Amino acid sequence: MCPSSLAVSLLVVVVGGAAPEPRDPLRVMTYNVLYSASEEDVGRSLDVIEQEAPDILCLRELTPRFANAFRKRLGAKYPHSRLLPRKGSWGMGIASKHPVTRAEPFAQKPHRMPGLEAEVRVGRRRLKVACVHLMAPGARHTKDEDLFESMAKNAVLREKQGAALVRRYAKEEGPLLLLGDMNEERSGAAMKAFAAADFVHACDGKGADCGSTWPGATSMLPSVVEIDHILGRKLSLSGAKVLRTGGSDHYPVRAVLDFPR
Description:
Blueprint (H helix, E strand, L loop, with lengths): L2 H14 L9 E7 L6 H14 L3 E5 L3 H11 L7 E3 L7 E5 L3 E8 L6 E9 L2 E9 L13 H22 L7 E6 L7 H8 L3 E2 L26 E6 L2 E7 L10 E6 L3
Parallel strand pairs: 1-2, 7-8
Antiparallel strand pairs: 1-12, 2-4, 3-4, 5-6, 6-7, 8-10, 9-10, 11-12
């Protein structure tokens, strides 16, 4: 074969061949970055993200301020991000170092607070990622509602949101990563529903160093509840850790993800 023909053949192989498999497991992180965070606290949260360098990141309470700062500082490292910032607590985003072939918000029924779903291509693998934020315990539905009424209503609402997510992914055959601010511990109804639907908790994996995630670094109070979670189905999760730093009222959680062989 002449040199020019060999060059053409090699080009066909490189361009037309399948993407190579990643050599290392993926690092994933979930982080509620606090919609009211100051500029200084935004910087502290970005410090954590930059230091941990997750391959896939779920952001909740993502505001325009945080999104702009993220793009300026880390945008080049996360060229496949889908950020949907909003004022208040409804903003969200999935930042990825790997190609995102589809991303769309969806209502976390029966409430309108949105989740964000993405298809991420990792080599020849396809990973579905759902970044969610279930209803906060103390969120009021009417002006005259007291805290105990709110908490009772929101516990029921989270149970329904959990059931809706289980139904949404009941027929999903591929690897699925479900992560975010669930606003309840593992004893909660939504979390129990996820476990019953074969979602594995990252903090049950090898090398875990987990615990409470709220309140976080911006609070004078000690952290008392574990409400930020990383779950997977048809995935291997290990090395989960609560990162006790940052600039939010939640601590971020990270884990290592690998595909089954």
